[in-house]
From TrEMBL:
Its cofactor is NH4(+); K(+). Pathway: Cofactor biosynthesis; coenzyme A biosynthesis; CoA from (R)-pantothenate: step 1/5. Pfam families: Pan_kinase. It comes from Pseudodesulfovibrio piezophilus (strain DSM 21447 / JCM 15486 / C1TLV30). It catalyses: (R)-pantothenate + ATP = (R)-4'-phosphopantothenate + ADP + H(+). Keywords: ATP-binding, Coenzyme A biosynthesis, Cytoplasm, Kinase, Metal-binding, Nucleotide-binding, Potassium, Transferase. This is Type III pantothenate kinase. The active site is at 111 (proton acceptor).
Length: 257
């Protein structure tokens, strides 16, 4: 079995992970710029492969979860030119073994579905909520083998950026957890830190509580760049899986016929 390239193409960044028969390898993050060319992507991927001691001949497939349509033809062209393989897109050319109960199934992001697939295959709980702290904060609900729908809320980083760009006196702030106990800030930086981190933790807890009225005792999985930060002040997050989308892509590809 050769190397499989896994892509999680999001609105802000694209994560790339190498996988083989041993499972997932190291992940790398590049900015998502659909205006770049297929050659630009190919040269950057070759640099990653060289760093990992892998040649282009070792690549057997490119598997993509994408919510950025303009990027898709670039990745497809790159896969053919640089690795002589076709790109497999989750939800289109790569089946996701979940019933999609969305009123308009085509509107569901592939990252949501593969994350739900991974959570479903890893946990026995009948009811699962997958929270993704990405550009947006999403809560996806799984009952049995069906994706039932979910919620879309502002993202932590996008909210932070909106505050910084829309106000003259609010500084940029880190989102690290300095104290797990909420207290009022005595500097503007502390006020922002406490408000954002504990605010999103409380939002998540409140929404899970509301969703629990429709989903008895849900198991809550968190993923995304800030999952660890928010999970430290949340009462309802049961597990953190930073690579959940990659795990879902790898599971979907491994079961691909």
């Amino acid at each position: 079995m050769g190397t499989t390239l896994l892509f999680d193409a999001g609105n802000t960044n694209t994560k790339i992970c190498l996988a083989d028969e041993k499972g997932l390898g190291t992940s790398y993050t590049l900015p998502t710029r659909p205006a770049n060319t297929a050659d630009d992507w190919g040269i950057k991927i070759e640099a990653i492969l060289a760093r990992e001691g892998v040649t282009s001949r070792d690549v057997e497939a490119c598997v993509i979860s994408s919510v950025v349509p303009p990027l898709d033809p670039l990745i497809s062209s790159m896969a053919r030119r640089f690795f002589d393989c076709d790109a497999l897109f989750a939800g289109r050319t790569l089946k996701i073994a979940l019933e999609n109960c969305y009123a308009r199934p085509e509107q569901v992001g592939a990252d949501i579905l593969v994350g739900c697939l991974a959570a479903r295959m890893m946990h026995e709980s009948e009811n699962i909520i997958v929270i993704d702290f990405g550009t947006a904060t999403t809560l996806a609900c799984v009952k049995g083998s069906a994706f039932k729908g979910g919620l879309i809320c502002p993202g932590v980083l996008s909210s932070t950026a909106a505050l910084a760009s829309g106000t003259a006196k609010l500084p940029k702030v880190d989102l690290e957890i300095h104290n797990k106990t909420l207290s009022w800030g005595t500097t503007t930086e502390e006020c922002l830190n406490q408000g954002l981190v504990f605010g999103f933790g409380s939002m998540v807890d409140g929404l899970v509580e509301k969703l629990s009225e429709k989903m008895e005792d849900p198991f809550v999985v968190a993923t995304g760049g800030l999952a660890r930060n928010v999970a430290q002040v949340s009462r309802r997050i049961d597990q953190i899986r930073p690579e959940l989308v990659m795990e879902g892509l790898w599971l979907a590809y491994s079961n691909h016929e």
